[in-house]
Write a structure and sequence with these properties.
The protein is of the alpha+beta class. Helix content is 41%, strand content 13%. The chain has 15 helices and 15 strands. Helix 2 packs across helix 3, helix 2 packs across helix 9 and helix 8 packs across helix 11. It is globular. It binds zinc ion. Zinc ion binds next to helix 8 and helix 11.
Protein backbone atom coordinates (compact mmCIF):
# COMPACT_ATOMS: atom_id res chain seq x y z
CA UNK A 1 0.00 0.00 0.00
CA UNK A 2 1.36 3.43 -0.99
CA UNK A 3 2.11 5.82 1.88
CA UNK A 4 -0.25 8.43 0.47
CA UNK A 5 -3.07 5.93 0.20
CA UNK A 6 -2.41 4.81 3.76
CA UNK A 7 -2.53 8.40 5.02
CA UNK A 8 -5.75 9.07 3.11
CA UNK A 9 -7.42 6.09 4.70
CA UNK A 10 -6.27 7.10 8.17
CA UNK A 11 -7.64 10.57 7.64
CA UNK A 12 -10.95 9.08 6.44
CA UNK A 13 -11.15 7.26 9.78
CA UNK A 14 -10.54 10.54 11.57
CA UNK A 15 -13.28 12.24 9.59
CA UNK A 16 -15.66 9.43 10.43
CA UNK A 17 -14.95 9.69 14.15
CA UNK A 18 -15.08 13.49 14.21
CA UNK A 19 -18.47 13.52 12.44
CA UNK A 20 -19.89 10.89 14.79
CA UNK A 21 -18.66 12.80 17.84
CA UNK A 22 -20.06 16.08 16.59
CA UNK A 23 -23.38 14.41 15.99
CA UNK A 24 -23.18 13.27 19.62
CA UNK A 25 -22.81 16.92 20.70
CA UNK A 26 -19.09 16.77 21.44
CA UNK A 27 -17.47 20.20 20.86
CA UNK A 28 -15.34 20.52 17.75
CA UNK A 29 -11.88 20.86 19.29
CA UNK A 30 -12.46 17.95 21.64
CA UNK A 31 -13.81 15.79 18.82
CA UNK A 32 -10.66 16.45 16.80
CA UNK A 33 -8.38 15.45 19.67
CA UNK A 34 -10.30 12.23 20.23
CA UNK A 35 -10.15 11.50 16.50
CA UNK A 36 -6.41 12.03 16.45
CA UNK A 37 -6.05 9.41 19.16
CA UNK A 38 -8.27 6.89 17.37
CA UNK A 39 -6.43 7.56 14.10
CA UNK A 40 -3.11 6.89 15.77
CA UNK A 41 -4.28 3.60 17.19
CA UNK A 42 -5.91 2.45 13.95
CA UNK A 43 -2.93 3.55 11.84
CA UNK A 44 -0.53 1.65 14.12
CA UNK A 45 -2.64 -1.49 14.04
CA UNK A 46 -2.85 -1.35 10.25
CA UNK A 47 0.85 -0.72 9.88
CA UNK A 48 1.87 -3.60 12.14
CA UNK A 49 -0.76 -5.99 10.78
CA UNK A 50 0.13 -5.18 7.20
CA UNK A 51 -3.48 -4.35 6.47
CA UNK A 52 -5.12 -1.21 5.14
CA UNK A 53 -6.49 1.26 7.72
CA UNK A 54 -9.89 1.04 6.08
CA UNK A 55 -9.90 -2.73 6.51
CA UNK A 56 -8.95 -2.40 10.18
CA UNK A 57 -11.64 0.20 10.73
CA UNK A 58 -14.32 -1.87 9.03
CA UNK A 59 -13.48 -4.99 11.00
CA UNK A 60 -12.54 -3.56 14.38
CA UNK A 61 -13.45 0.14 14.45
CA UNK A 62 -15.98 1.94 16.58
CA UNK A 63 -19.29 1.47 14.80
CA UNK A 64 -21.43 4.03 16.55
CA UNK A 65 -21.18 6.87 18.99
CA UNK A 66 -24.58 7.27 20.55
CA UNK A 67 -25.77 10.21 22.57
CA UNK A 68 -28.57 10.71 25.04
CA UNK A 69 -31.75 12.12 23.58
CA UNK A 70 -30.92 11.62 19.93
CA UNK A 71 -30.11 7.89 20.07
CA UNK A 72 -31.04 6.58 23.48
CA UNK A 73 -32.98 7.50 26.57
CA UNK A 74 -33.43 5.82 29.89
CA UNK A 75 -36.70 4.20 30.76
CA UNK A 76 -38.34 4.56 34.16
CA UNK A 77 -36.16 1.85 35.65
CA UNK A 78 -32.99 3.41 34.23
CA UNK A 79 -32.50 0.90 31.42
CA UNK A 80 -31.09 2.02 28.10
CA UNK A 81 -33.84 2.53 25.54
CA UNK A 82 -32.81 2.80 21.92
CA UNK A 83 -34.57 5.67 20.11
CA UNK A 84 -32.82 6.11 16.76
CA UNK A 85 -32.96 3.29 14.24
CA UNK A 86 -29.14 2.94 14.42
CA UNK A 87 -29.31 2.46 18.16
CA UNK A 88 -32.21 0.04 17.82
CA UNK A 89 -30.32 -2.22 15.48
CA UNK A 90 -26.99 -1.97 17.30
CA UNK A 91 -28.18 -2.43 20.85
CA UNK A 92 -30.24 -5.57 20.49
CA UNK A 93 -28.64 -6.94 23.61
CA UNK A 94 -27.20 -3.95 25.34
CA UNK A 95 -24.54 -5.62 27.43
CA UNK A 96 -22.29 -2.77 28.35
CA UNK A 97 -19.33 -1.68 30.40
CA UNK A 98 -20.21 1.31 32.50
CA UNK A 99 -20.04 2.87 35.89
CA UNK A 100 -22.82 1.93 38.32
CA UNK A 101 -25.00 4.28 40.28
CA UNK A 102 -26.02 4.07 43.87
CA UNK A 103 -27.91 5.95 46.51
CA UNK A 104 -25.75 7.96 48.83
CA UNK A 105 -27.56 9.85 51.54
CA UNK A 106 -30.51 11.44 49.83
CA UNK A 107 -29.00 11.58 46.37
CA UNK A 108 -28.17 9.19 43.60
CA UNK A 109 -24.46 9.16 42.94
CA UNK A 110 -22.34 7.82 40.14
CA UNK A 111 -20.04 5.42 41.93
CA UNK A 112 -16.68 5.17 40.18
CA UNK A 113 -16.69 1.68 38.66
CA UNK A 114 -13.21 0.77 39.84
CA UNK A 115 -14.51 0.75 43.40
CA UNK A 116 -15.99 -2.65 42.66
CA UNK A 117 -19.31 -4.02 43.92
CA UNK A 118 -21.63 -1.76 45.87
CA UNK A 119 -22.77 -2.95 49.27
CA UNK A 120 -25.75 -1.42 51.00
CA UNK A 121 -28.82 -2.29 53.00
CA UNK A 122 -30.16 -1.82 56.46
CA UNK A 123 -27.46 -3.95 58.05
CA UNK A 124 -24.74 -1.75 56.63
CA UNK A 125 -25.96 1.74 55.94
CA UNK A 126 -24.59 4.19 58.51
CA UNK A 127 -23.28 1.36 60.64
CA UNK A 128 -19.57 2.04 60.28
CA UNK A 129 -18.34 -0.91 62.31
CA UNK A 130 -20.39 -3.27 60.15
CA UNK A 131 -19.06 -1.43 57.10
CA UNK A 132 -15.44 -1.99 58.17
CA UNK A 133 -16.12 -5.67 58.81
CA UNK A 134 -17.87 -6.12 55.46
CA UNK A 135 -15.17 -4.43 53.37
CA UNK A 136 -12.37 -6.25 55.17
CA UNK A 137 -14.13 -9.51 54.52
CA UNK A 138 -14.81 -8.83 50.83
CA UNK A 139 -11.48 -7.09 50.19
CA UNK A 140 -13.18 -5.12 47.44
CA UNK A 141 -16.17 -2.91 46.91
CA UNK A 142 -17.70 0.16 48.39
CA UNK A 143 -20.35 1.17 50.89
CA UNK A 144 -21.84 4.50 49.78
CA UNK A 145 -23.56 5.10 53.10
CA UNK A 146 -20.77 4.43 55.57
CA UNK A 147 -20.92 7.58 57.71
CA UNK A 148 -23.57 10.17 58.31
CA UNK A 149 -21.79 13.39 57.76
CA UNK A 150 -22.61 16.79 56.33
CA UNK A 151 -19.93 18.74 54.58
CA UNK A 152 -22.23 21.74 54.18
CA UNK A 153 -21.23 22.65 57.72
CA UNK A 154 -18.44 24.48 55.88
CA UNK A 155 -18.33 27.15 53.19
CA UNK A 156 -16.20 26.78 50.13
CA UNK A 157 -13.71 29.58 49.35
CA UNK A 158 -16.47 31.41 47.46
CA UNK A 159 -18.71 31.48 50.50
CA UNK A 160 -21.11 28.78 49.33
CA UNK A 161 -21.82 25.73 51.48
CA UNK A 162 -19.98 22.64 50.31
CA UNK A 163 -22.19 20.10 48.58
CA UNK A 164 -23.53 17.38 50.81
CA UNK A 165 -26.16 14.69 50.72
CA UNK A 166 -25.71 13.66 54.30
CA UNK A 167 -23.46 10.68 53.72
CA UNK A 168 -19.83 9.83 53.20
CA UNK A 169 -18.87 6.49 51.74
CA UNK A 170 -16.01 4.14 52.39
CA UNK A 171 -14.17 2.33 49.63
CA UNK A 172 -12.07 -0.78 50.11
CA UNK A 173 -9.61 0.71 47.62
CA UNK A 174 -5.97 -0.29 47.42
CA UNK A 175 -3.13 -0.41 49.92
CA UNK A 176 -0.65 1.29 47.59
CA UNK A 177 2.96 0.41 46.95
CA UNK A 178 4.49 -1.12 50.10
CA UNK A 179 7.95 -0.24 48.85
CA UNK A 180 7.03 3.42 48.63
CA UNK A 181 5.19 3.97 51.90
CA UNK A 182 1.95 2.74 50.35
CA UNK A 183 1.84 5.65 47.92
CA UNK A 184 -0.93 5.41 45.36
CA UNK A 185 -3.22 3.72 47.87
CA UNK A 186 -6.59 4.92 49.04
CA UNK A 187 -9.57 3.77 51.06
CA UNK A 188 -9.74 1.22 53.83
CA UNK A 189 -7.05 -1.03 52.35
CA UNK A 190 -4.64 1.90 52.47
CA UNK A 191 -5.62 2.98 55.99
CA UNK A 192 -5.30 -0.57 57.31
CA UNK A 193 -1.92 -1.03 55.63
CA UNK A 194 -0.33 2.28 56.48
CA UNK A 195 -2.22 3.50 59.53
CA UNK A 196 -3.57 0.43 61.30
CA UNK A 197 -6.22 1.24 63.89
CA UNK A 198 -7.14 4.58 62.40
CA UNK A 199 -10.19 3.38 60.49
CA UNK A 200 -11.97 2.60 63.77
CA UNK A 201 -11.44 6.17 64.89
CA UNK A 202 -13.29 7.73 61.95
CA UNK A 203 -16.72 7.29 63.54
CA UNK A 204 -16.10 9.37 66.64
CA UNK A 205 -13.82 11.66 64.69
CA UNK A 206 -16.66 12.75 62.39
CA UNK A 207 -18.94 13.50 65.34
CA UNK A 208 -16.50 15.96 66.86
CA UNK A 209 -18.18 19.41 66.70
CA UNK A 210 -14.80 21.15 66.78
CA UNK A 211 -13.45 19.68 63.55
CA UNK A 212 -11.63 22.04 61.26
CA UNK A 213 -11.72 21.65 57.48
CA UNK A 214 -9.03 22.54 54.96
CA UNK A 215 -9.48 22.43 51.24
CA UNK A 216 -7.01 21.47 48.60
CA UNK A 217 -8.41 21.01 45.15
CA UNK A 218 -11.05 18.34 45.17
CA UNK A 219 -9.99 17.09 48.55
CA UNK A 220 -10.97 18.20 52.03
CA UNK A 221 -8.82 17.37 55.01
CA UNK A 222 -10.62 17.31 58.35
CA UNK A 223 -8.56 17.77 61.49
CA UNK A 224 -9.27 17.44 65.19
CA UNK A 225 -5.80 18.47 66.32
CA UNK A 226 -4.60 14.89 66.57
CA UNK A 227 -5.83 13.01 63.53
CA UNK A 228 -6.73 13.79 59.98
CA UNK A 229 -9.31 12.34 57.65
CA UNK A 230 -9.03 13.01 53.93
CA UNK A 231 -12.26 13.16 51.97
CA UNK A 232 -12.79 13.30 48.27
CA UNK A 233 -15.56 15.80 47.70
CA UNK A 234 -15.60 16.17 43.93
CA UNK A 235 -14.51 12.83 42.59
CA UNK A 236 -13.15 13.62 39.11
CA UNK A 237 -14.40 17.17 39.46
CA UNK A 238 -18.07 16.38 39.82
CA UNK A 239 -20.32 16.71 42.84
CA UNK A 240 -22.49 13.81 41.66
CA UNK A 241 -19.90 11.10 42.18
CA UNK A 242 -20.31 10.82 45.90
CA UNK A 243 -18.06 11.76 48.77
CA UNK A 244 -15.56 9.24 50.02
CA UNK A 245 -13.06 8.68 52.76
CA UNK A 246 -9.67 8.48 51.07
CA UNK A 247 -7.39 8.24 54.07
CA UNK A 248 -7.11 8.71 57.82
CA UNK A 249 -3.96 9.12 59.88
CA UNK A 250 -2.41 10.64 62.98
CA UNK A 251 -1.02 14.10 62.52
CA UNK A 252 -0.74 16.90 65.00
CA UNK A 253 0.28 19.45 62.42
CA UNK A 254 -2.32 21.66 60.78
CA UNK A 255 -3.20 20.51 57.26
CA UNK A 256 -1.88 22.43 54.31
CA UNK A 257 -4.48 24.09 52.13
CA UNK A 258 -7.03 26.76 52.83
CA UNK A 259 -9.00 26.60 56.05
CA UNK A 260 -12.72 26.75 55.40
CA UNK A 261 -15.17 28.86 57.38
CA UNK A 262 -18.11 27.29 59.15
CA UNK A 263 -21.51 27.79 57.55
CA UNK A 264 -23.61 30.01 59.81
CA UNK A 265 -26.79 27.93 59.91
CA UNK A 266 -25.20 24.54 59.65
CA UNK A 267 -27.19 23.09 62.50
CA UNK A 268 -30.51 23.52 60.65
CA UNK A 269 -29.42 21.43 57.75
CA UNK A 270 -27.50 18.77 59.51
CA UNK A 271 -29.59 15.65 59.07
CA UNK A 272 -31.16 13.83 56.21
CA UNK A 273 -29.91 10.36 55.51
CA UNK A 274 -32.41 8.54 53.38
CA UNK A 275 -32.50 5.41 55.45
CA UNK A 276 -33.59 4.84 58.96
CA UNK A 277 -30.80 4.22 61.36
CA UNK A 278 -31.35 2.35 64.54
CA UNK A 279 -28.13 3.29 66.17
CA UNK A 280 -27.56 -0.03 67.86
CA UNK A 281 -24.05 -0.53 66.65
CA UNK A 282 -22.78 2.53 68.43
CA UNK A 283 -21.91 3.90 65.09
CA UNK A 284 -24.68 6.19 64.01
CA UNK A 285 -24.63 9.89 64.41
CA UNK A 286 -26.92 11.44 67.03
CA UNK A 287 -28.53 13.50 64.31
CA UNK A 288 -30.58 10.92 62.51
CA UNK A 289 -33.76 11.45 64.47
CA UNK A 290 -34.22 14.87 62.91
CA UNK A 291 -34.77 13.28 59.58
CA UNK A 292 -37.49 10.76 60.03
CA UNK A 293 -40.05 12.65 57.93
CA UNK A 294 -37.94 12.95 54.83
CA UNK A 295 -40.11 11.46 52.12
CA UNK A 296 -38.13 12.75 49.20
CA UNK A 297 -36.18 9.58 48.61
CA UNK A 298 -37.56 6.29 47.37
CA UNK A 299 -37.28 3.11 49.39
CA UNK A 300 -35.60 1.00 46.79
CA UNK A 301 -31.87 0.79 46.53
CA UNK A 302 -31.22 1.82 42.97
CA UNK A 303 -27.70 0.50 42.68
CA UNK A 304 -29.26 -2.86 41.95
CA UNK A 305 -29.95 -1.51 38.52
CA UNK A 306 -26.56 -1.18 36.93
CA UNK A 307 -27.68 0.55 33.78
CA UNK A 308 -28.77 3.62 35.59
CA UNK A 309 -27.24 7.00 35.08
CA UNK A 310 -23.73 6.15 34.01
CA UNK A 311 -21.68 8.78 32.12
CA UNK A 312 -20.58 6.66 29.28
CA UNK A 313 -20.87 3.07 28.25
CA UNK A 314 -19.16 0.76 25.86
CA UNK A 315 -21.03 -2.05 24.17
CA UNK A 316 -18.39 -4.59 23.14
CA UNK A 317 -20.61 -6.71 20.94
CA UNK A 318 -21.99 -3.71 19.05
CA UNK A 319 -18.61 -1.93 19.26
CA UNK A 320 -20.55 1.18 20.17
CA UNK A 321 -19.84 4.01 22.56
CA UNK A 322 -22.65 5.75 24.37
CA UNK A 323 -22.14 9.22 25.78
CA UNK A 324 -24.79 10.22 28.29
CA UNK A 325 -25.58 13.92 28.67
CA UNK A 326 -23.44 14.08 31.82
CA UNK A 327 -20.30 12.79 30.08
CA UNK A 328 -17.10 14.71 30.81
CA UNK A 329 -13.90 15.01 28.79
CA UNK A 330 -12.47 11.82 30.24
CA UNK A 331 -15.52 9.73 29.31
CA UNK A 332 -14.76 9.17 25.65
CA UNK A 333 -11.09 8.47 26.43
CA UNK A 334 -12.11 5.84 28.97
CA UNK A 335 -14.48 4.20 26.46
CA UNK A 336 -11.74 4.39 23.83
CA UNK A 337 -9.65 2.27 26.21
CA UNK A 338 -12.36 -0.42 26.22
CA UNK A 339 -12.68 -0.30 22.45
CA UNK A 340 -8.91 -0.39 21.86
CA UNK A 341 -8.38 -3.44 24.06
CA UNK A 342 -11.13 -5.35 22.25
CA UNK A 343 -9.84 -4.30 18.82
CA UNK A 344 -6.25 -5.30 19.61
CA UNK A 345 -7.29 -8.67 21.02
CA UNK A 346 -9.52 -9.38 18.00
CA UNK A 347 -6.86 -8.42 15.49
CA UNK A 348 -4.13 -10.36 17.31
CA UNK A 349 -6.29 -13.48 17.33
CA UNK A 350 -6.87 -13.07 13.61
CA UNK A 351 -3.13 -12.71 12.95
CA UNK A 352 -2.30 -15.77 15.03
CA UNK A 353 -4.08 -17.88 12.40
CA UNK A 354 -1.41 -16.98 9.86
CA UNK A 355 1.27 -19.52 9.22
CA UNK A 356 4.17 -17.14 9.65
CA UNK A 357 4.19 -13.71 11.15
CA UNK A 358 6.29 -10.69 10.20
CA UNK A 359 8.23 -8.94 12.98
CA UNK A 360 5.59 -6.22 12.96
CA UNK A 361 2.75 -8.71 13.30
CA UNK A 362 4.62 -10.43 16.12
CA UNK A 363 4.94 -7.08 17.84
CA UNK A 364 1.21 -6.46 17.51
CA UNK A 365 0.39 -9.86 18.99
CA UNK A 366 2.94 -9.90 21.79
CA UNK A 367 2.16 -6.37 22.98
CA UNK A 368 -1.49 -7.23 23.55
CA UNK A 369 -0.60 -10.66 24.95
CA UNK A 370 1.43 -8.88 27.60
CA UNK A 371 -1.58 -6.68 28.31
CA UNK A 372 -4.02 -9.56 28.87
CA UNK A 373 -1.44 -11.36 31.03
CA UNK A 374 -1.13 -8.23 33.11
CA UNK A 375 -4.92 -8.33 33.40
CA UNK A 376 -4.74 -11.86 34.82
CA UNK A 377 -5.49 -13.96 31.74
CA UNK A 378 -3.22 -16.73 30.46
CA UNK A 379 -3.88 -16.09 26.82
CA UNK A 380 -5.73 -13.98 24.29
CA UNK A 381 -8.11 -16.89 23.81
CA UNK A 382 -8.93 -17.04 27.50
CA UNK A 383 -9.59 -13.32 27.60
CA UNK A 384 -11.76 -13.33 24.46
CA UNK A 385 -13.64 -16.38 25.70
CA UNK A 386 -14.62 -14.87 29.05
CA UNK A 387 -18.06 -13.32 29.45
CA UNK A 388 -18.34 -9.58 29.80
CA UNK A 389 -19.35 -10.11 33.42
CA UNK A 390 -16.18 -12.11 34.13
CA UNK A 391 -14.02 -9.66 32.25
CA UNK A 392 -15.46 -6.53 33.80
CA UNK A 393 -12.82 -5.93 36.51
CA UNK A 394 -10.00 -6.51 34.02
CA UNK A 395 -11.69 -4.28 31.44
CA UNK A 396 -12.06 -1.48 33.94
CA UNK A 397 -8.49 -1.80 35.12
CA UNK A 398 -7.32 -1.50 31.55
CA UNK A 399 -9.56 1.48 30.72
CA UNK A 400 -8.56 3.26 33.93
CA UNK A 401 -4.87 2.70 33.36
CA UNK A 402 -5.31 3.78 29.74
CA UNK A 403 -6.67 7.04 31.17
CA UNK A 404 -3.71 7.25 33.54
CA UNK A 405 -1.30 6.69 30.67
CA UNK A 406 -2.85 9.63 28.80
CA UNK A 407 -3.06 11.68 32.00
CA UNK A 408 0.68 11.33 32.62
CA UNK A 409 1.26 13.10 29.31
CA UNK A 410 4.47 11.21 28.52
CA UNK A 411 4.19 10.37 24.85
CA UNK A 412 6.09 7.29 23.68
CA UNK A 413 7.23 9.09 20.52
CA UNK A 414 7.76 12.75 19.70
CA UNK A 415 4.92 12.83 17.18
CA UNK A 416 2.34 12.24 19.93
CA UNK A 417 3.68 14.81 22.37
CA UNK A 418 1.25 17.64 21.75
CA UNK A 419 -1.79 15.35 21.79
CA UNK A 420 -0.65 13.75 25.05
CA UNK A 421 -0.03 17.16 26.57
CA UNK A 422 -3.58 18.21 25.70
CA UNK A 423 -5.09 15.11 27.29
CA UNK A 424 -2.90 15.57 30.35
CA UNK A 425 -4.33 19.07 30.81
CA UNK A 426 -7.89 17.82 30.54
CA UNK A 427 -7.27 15.16 33.13
CA UNK A 428 -5.67 17.66 35.45
CA UNK A 429 -8.91 19.63 35.38
CA UNK A 430 -11.00 16.50 35.94
CA UNK A 431 -9.03 14.55 38.53
CA UNK A 432 -7.75 17.57 40.41
CA UNK A 433 -5.59 16.69 43.36
CA UNK A 434 -5.29 13.02 42.56
CA UNK A 435 -2.03 12.01 40.99
CA UNK A 436 -3.38 8.60 40.00
CA UNK A 437 -6.63 7.87 38.22
CA UNK A 438 -8.45 5.73 40.79
CA UNK A 439 -8.46 2.11 39.77
CA UNK A 440 -5.46 2.53 37.52
CA UNK A 441 -2.31 0.51 38.11
CA UNK A 442 0.61 2.35 36.65
CA UNK A 443 4.23 1.33 37.13
CA UNK A 444 7.34 1.47 34.98
CA UNK A 445 6.57 -1.97 33.56
CA UNK A 446 2.97 -1.09 32.82
CA UNK A 447 4.04 2.17 31.20
CA UNK A 448 6.39 0.23 28.92
CA UNK A 449 3.56 -2.14 28.10
CA UNK A 450 1.35 0.80 27.10
CA UNK A 451 4.22 2.37 25.16
CA UNK A 452 4.40 -0.82 23.11
CA UNK A 453 0.66 -0.71 22.51
CA UNK A 454 0.93 2.87 21.31
CA UNK A 455 3.76 2.52 18.80
CA UNK A 456 4.39 0.37 15.77
CA UNK A 457 7.17 -2.16 15.68
CA UNK A 458 9.14 0.17 13.40
CA UNK A 459 8.77 3.11 15.77
CA UNK A 460 9.75 0.92 18.67
CA UNK A 461 12.92 -0.17 16.94
CA UNK A 462 13.79 3.44 16.18
CA UNK A 463 13.11 4.47 19.74
CA UNK A 464 15.25 1.63 21.06
CA UNK A 465 18.12 2.55 18.76
CA UNK A 466 17.90 6.11 19.93
CA UNK A 467 17.84 4.97 23.52
CA UNK A 468 20.81 2.64 23.07
CA UNK A 469 22.77 5.43 21.45
CA UNK A 470 21.88 7.70 24.30
CA UNK A 471 22.98 5.07 26.76
CA UNK A 472 26.19 4.56 24.86
CA UNK A 473 27.41 8.14 24.98
CA UNK A 474 27.82 10.43 27.93
CA UNK A 475 29.54 13.67 28.78
CA UNK A 476 33.02 12.12 28.83
CA UNK A 477 32.60 11.12 25.23
CA UNK A 478 32.41 14.75 24.16
CA UNK A 479 35.24 17.23 24.33
CA UNK A 480 32.87 20.21 24.37
CA UNK A 481 29.87 20.76 26.62
CA UNK A 482 28.09 22.39 23.70
CA UNK A 483 28.54 19.35 21.51
CA UNK A 484 27.18 17.15 24.30
CA UNK A 485 24.13 19.41 24.70
CA UNK A 486 23.54 19.39 20.97
CA UNK A 487 23.74 15.62 21.04
CA UNK A 488 21.20 15.41 23.87
CA UNK A 489 18.86 17.73 22.00
CA UNK A 490 19.22 15.61 18.89
CA UNK A 491 18.37 12.49 20.87
CA UNK A 492 15.24 14.19 22.14
CA UNK A 493 16.30 13.93 25.75
CA UNK A 494 16.10 16.85 28.18
ZN1 LIG B 1 -15.37 1.40 31.91
Amino acid sequence: MKPQEFRDEVSAVGKDVTEALKAANVPDAQAKSYSALVQTLVGNMASDAGMSPREIWEQYGIRNIFSEGKDVTRDASGQVQAVSSEAKSALVSPESLHEPWAKQGNATVNVPDMFGPIFSGEDLDFKPLAVLAKLRKEKTGVVPNAFQFRLDQWLDPNGKPLPSNGAVGLVYGRPGDPKREFSGGYGLAHIDAKHPGNAEKIVSFLQNPALRAFSRGDKITLWNGKDKVGLSVFWDGNPDRGQWVITSFKDEEAPTGKELKRAPSAVDKIPSPSRTVDGDSGSSSPREALNSNDKSTPESVKEQNPNELSKGEYFPTARSVLLWANADRSTFLHETGHWFLGARVGLALQLKNLETLTDSQKHLVSAVEDAVKWLGYDSLEAFAGASIEERRPAEERFARTFEQYLKDGRAPIAGLQSLFRRFANWFKAIYGFMTAVPGSQMSDDVRQMFDRLFVTEEQQTEARLRYDLYQALNREDFSEEEAYQAYLALMGNN
